[in-house]
User: Which sequence fits this backbone?
């Protein structure tokens, strides 16, 4: 009797490190360390908070400008631009 499995499970040596038992232990130690770092150094974190807000402003400016196509993609829809189009429109007008 053969059993057919539809899912593929890679061998243990090809799994990502964080999915191994040693990876879970590392995640646990990092979580505990982060907890103690935050609880013991809260004063330092609150002291850094105003500078973090100031640093967030230029970072948001840099990373959020991609949402509207950058600075090179501005187009005037329905408006003429430049002196060439102005001179063409003045030639049609008779004084």
Assistant:
């Amino acid at each position: 009797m053969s059993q057919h499995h539809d899912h593929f499970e890679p061998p243990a040596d090809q799994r990502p490190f964080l999915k191994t038992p040693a990876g879970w232990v590392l995640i646990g130690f990092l979580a505990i360390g982060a907890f103690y770092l935050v609880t013991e150094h809260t004063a330092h974190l609150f002291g850094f908070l105003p500078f973090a807000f100031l640093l967030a402003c230029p970072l948001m400016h840099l990373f959020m400008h991609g949402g509207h196509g950058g600075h090179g993609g501005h187009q005037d829809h329905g408006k003429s631009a430049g002196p060439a189009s102005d001179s063409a429109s003045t030639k049609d007008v008779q004084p």
Summary: The chain is about 55% helix and 0% strand. The chain has a mean pLDDT of 76. The first helix runs from residue 21 to 40. The CA atoms of residues 12 and 19 lie 10 Å apart.
